[in-house]
Amino acid sequence: MSLLFQPIQFGSLKLDNKIVIAPMCQYSATDQGEVTYWHEQQWASYALSGAGLCIIEATAVQPEGRISYADLGLWNDLQRAQMKALLEKVRSLSPMPIAIQLAHAGRKASTDKPWGGRNQIAPTDEHGWQTVSASDVPFNESDIAPHALTVDEIRKIVDDFAQAAVRAVDAGFNLIEVHAAHGYLLHQFMSPLSNKRTDEYGGSFENRIRLTLEVFQAIQNAVPKDYPVGIRISATDWMDGVESWNVESSIGLSKALAQLGAVYIHASSGGLHVKQDIQIGANYQVPFAKAIKENVDIPVIAVGLITEAEQAEEILKNNEADAIGLARAIQYDPRWPWHAAAALGAEIKISPQYLRSQPHGLKALFKAF
What residues does the NADH:flavin oxidoreductase/NADH oxidase N-terminal domain cover (predicted)? Predict the structure, then answer.
C-alpha cells in the first residue's frame, strides 16, 4: 500500500491522502484584495486535482500586509462574503478540504507583481505604501526603510490576524495556516538579522518568537474549539557565519507551537535575506522537515522540489516527513495526484465525471468520491 495515499489527520481534520497543495501567490486579486475569476478557475482546478488538502495563497490580514497590490486580503467582510460564495461553488465540484494561509508581508510588502519586476513601490507612487517590520532594517539596501512597529501597532496586527481567522471560519475554510516563513513579518521578528529590537519582542530567542506565538494563540482563541490551525515556517535563513534563524531555532519554535496545539508544521526555508545561500536541488528542504519531525509529536509537511511520485513516497518511507507539499509541480501538472496514484498503483478519489479517463489496465485506480 502506498504511504502517500494513506489518510492523515491534521487535528480534527482528516485528509484522504498525504498530498498537500502548498500556498502559491497568484497576484491576481483586485487592488482591494478581492477574488477574481482567476481564483474561481484556480480553486476549481485545485479541487479537482485529487490532493488531500489545498491551502489557498497568502492572504493579508491588513491592506499594508499584502506583498503586492494584487494580493488577496481578508481584512473586511466583503472579502469574506466573496470567498464564501466562491467556496460554495468549488464545493459543488469536490469535497476536498480547503484551507487558507493568513499572512502579513511586513518589510517585503508594497512590491510590483513578479512579472513586473517585483521591485518595491514607493509610498508616494500608485499601488505603494509604507512598509512595517520589527525594526527599520530594509530588505534591499535600495528599499525605503520599514517603519519599526510600536507595541500598540503589534497588538493591532495580532488582533487583525484573529479577526481574519473569524472571517476565514465563517467563509467556510476547513483549516487556517499561519504564514511565519519566507522573510515575511513573523519571520522578520524571529530572525536576529531583521529584528534589532531591545524590548519584549527583541533580543532573546523567547522574545523574538513572542509575536508568532501571540498570533497563533490569538487565532486559536478566535476560532471554534478543535478548529485546526497549522503553521508554515522557514527552517533556516541559509546564512552561515552570522547569527541568524536556523534549524535549531525552528526546532525550539516547533516545540512551543506543538504545546500550543498546532496541528502541523509546514517546513520551508529562506526568504529573509538577499544574501541567502540556498543549495537548491531535489529534496533540498526535506532534511529540515526530518529534523523537526524528530523533535515534535505533530505532523510535519515537507516541501521543495518534490516532483515525482516515487520521490514523495520515499520521503514518507524514510520517515522524513508525514505529508508532502506540492507547489510548482502541481501548477505545471494539475493532475499530479492522479499520475502519482497510477505510478504507485494506488487508489484515488476523483469526480465521477472523470472516471472514464482512467488508463486501461488500472481497474482499481480511480474511485468516485
Answer: 4-342
pLDDT tier at 356, thresholds 50, 70, 90: confident
Say which residues have a Cβ less than 8 Å from residue 239's Cβ, sequence separation at least 6.
Answer: 193, 272, 273, 275, 276, 277
Burial (CB < 10 A; 0-12, 13-18, 19+), residue 137, is: middle
- For 304, the grid coordinates are 521543495
- Pairing state between β 132-133 and 265-268: unpaired
Grid coordinates standing for 198? 531591545
Query: What Cα–Cα distance (Å) separates residue 36 from each residue in 29, 63, 85, 147, 309?
Result: 6, 17, 12, 31, 32
Active-site positions?
184
Residues 95 and 137: beta-carbon distance below 8 Å? no
Domains present along the chain, CATH in parentheses: 8-368 (3.20.20.70)
Taking only the tens place, the pLDDT of each residue in 192-224 is: 999 999 999 999 999 999 999 999 999 999 999
DSSP strand pairing (175-180 vs 19-21): unpaired
* H helices present in the chain, as ranges: 37-47, 77-91, 151-171, 185-190, 205-208, 210-222, 247-260, 286-293, 309-317, 328-332, 336-344
* CA–CA gap between residue 326 and residue 20 (Å, rounded): 6
Q: How many Cβ atoms from other residues are within 10 Å of residue 277's Cβ?
A: 11
Coil, strand or helix at 175: strand
